[in-house]
């Protein structure tokens, strides 16, 4: 039996007996808080994908680590995804992922239309724009990789949080957030890096008008994958006190969450 929680996910709760599950509390999505969280998730996702067109290298502990421009904001999408799942449940998180997915598709269509439109004056800027945002350019490749990775990683993240909460109740929020982040980021970083940067998708060059090229060697890819997972998980850990505060505030302020107690 689950004891009432203190509003921050840290209330005492007994683990379910073998085969037993708790009835987890979730709020309804018809509130301004859900809309704000989804808006932030979508905005961070869009910005990160545009920034990811640039690869960077940092020297840390006498080793050069390869990252992309999404390294600054993208980890926060998992923090937001975790908060959404914890408060509103798996279905609400799935809806948020679909909204982010749709926003990226709309962005790709707009960039494609802008690229195809005739430029004014010098064609030099047009050529540079086509390299980044053309249908066979870097952005579209990153878009496809990101859509696949984002959906797979975020759904993994949401499923683990929802499953652990159903199994163990309101207690141990930190365990839900950290375990879901580790598995979600492994899936996300691997799929994204494999498709966006390596030779893996070059078989598509047989299609007319497609001219893909590798952006990383395999050594750089594994460097990117290992550092990316560790870095993103560390960000989640460092921001855990903020996550606890936000979750606690939402559990206190969401009337439908309190009524579910």
UniProtKB/TrEMBL annotation:
<keyword id="KW-1003">Cell membrane</keyword>
<keyword id="KW-0812">Transmembrane</keyword>
<feature type="transmembrane region" description="Helical">
    <location>
        <begin position="72"/>
        <end position="90"/>
    </location>
</feature>
<dbReference type="Pfam" id="PF02592">
    <property type="entry name" value="Vut_1"/>
</dbReference>
<feature type="transmembrane region" description="Helical">
    <location>
        <begin position="224"/>
        <end position="250"/>
    </location>
</feature>
<comment type="function">
    <text>Involved in the import of queuosine (Q) precursors, required for Q precursor salvage.</text>
</comment>
<feature type="transmembrane region" description="Helical">
    <location>
        <begin position="138"/>
        <end position="161"/>
    </location>
</feature>
<dbReference type="GO" id="GO:0022857">
    <property type="term" value="F:transmembrane transporter activity"/>
</dbReference>
<keyword id="KW-0472">Membrane</keyword>
<feature type="transmembrane region" description="Helical">
    <location>
        <begin position="182"/>
        <end position="204"/>
    </location>
</feature>
<feature type="transmembrane region" description="Helical">
    <location>
        <begin position="33"/>
        <end position="52"/>
    </location>
</feature>
<protein>
    <recommendedName>
        <fullName>Probable queuosine precursor transporter</fullName>
    </recommendedName>
</protein>
<keyword id="KW-0813">Transport</keyword>
<dbReference type="InterPro" id="IPR003744">
    <property type="entry name" value="YhhQ"/>
</dbReference>
<comment type="similarity">
    <text>Belongs to the vitamin uptake transporter (VUT/ECF) (TC 2.A.88) family. Q precursor transporter subfamily.</text>
</comment>
<feature type="transmembrane region" description="Helical">
    <location>
        <begin position="97"/>
        <end position="118"/>
    </location>
</feature>
<keyword id="KW-1133">Transmembrane helix</keyword>
<dbReference type="GO" id="GO:0005886">
    <property type="term" value="C:plasma membrane"/>
</dbReference>
């Amino acid at each position: 039996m689950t004891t009432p929680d203190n509003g921050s996910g840290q209330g005492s709760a007994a683990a379910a007996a073998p085969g037993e599950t708790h009835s987890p509390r979730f709020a309804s999505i018809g509130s301004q808080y859900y809309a704000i969280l989804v808006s932030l998730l979508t905005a961070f996702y869009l910005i990160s994908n545009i920034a990811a067109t640039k690869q960077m290298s940092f020297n840390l502990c006498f080793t050069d680590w390869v990252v992309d421009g999404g390294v600054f904001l993208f980890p926060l999408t998992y923090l937001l995804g975790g908060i959404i799942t914890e408060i509103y449940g798996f279905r609400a998180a799935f809806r948020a992922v679909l909204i982010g997915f749709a926003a990226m598709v709309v962005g790709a269509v707009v960039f494609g239309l802008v690229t195809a439109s005739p430029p004014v004056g010098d064609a030099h800027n047009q050529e540079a724009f086509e390299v980044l945002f053309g249908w066979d350019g870097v952005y579209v490749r990153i878009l496809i990789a990101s859509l696949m990775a984002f959906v797979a990683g975020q759904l993994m993240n949401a499923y683990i949080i929802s499953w652990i909460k159903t199994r163990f109740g309101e207690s141990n929020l930190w365990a839900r957030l950290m375990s879901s982040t580790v598995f979600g980021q492994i899936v996300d970083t691997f799929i994204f890096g494999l498709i966006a940067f390596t030779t893996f998708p070059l078989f598509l060059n047989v299609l007319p008008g497609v001219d893909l090229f590798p952006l990383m060697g395999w050594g750089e890819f594994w460097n990117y994958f290992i550092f990316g997972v560790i870095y993103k998980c560390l960000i989640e850990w460092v921001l855990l006190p903020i996550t606890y505060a936000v979750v606690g505030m939402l559990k206190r302020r969401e009337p439908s969450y309190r009524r579910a107690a």
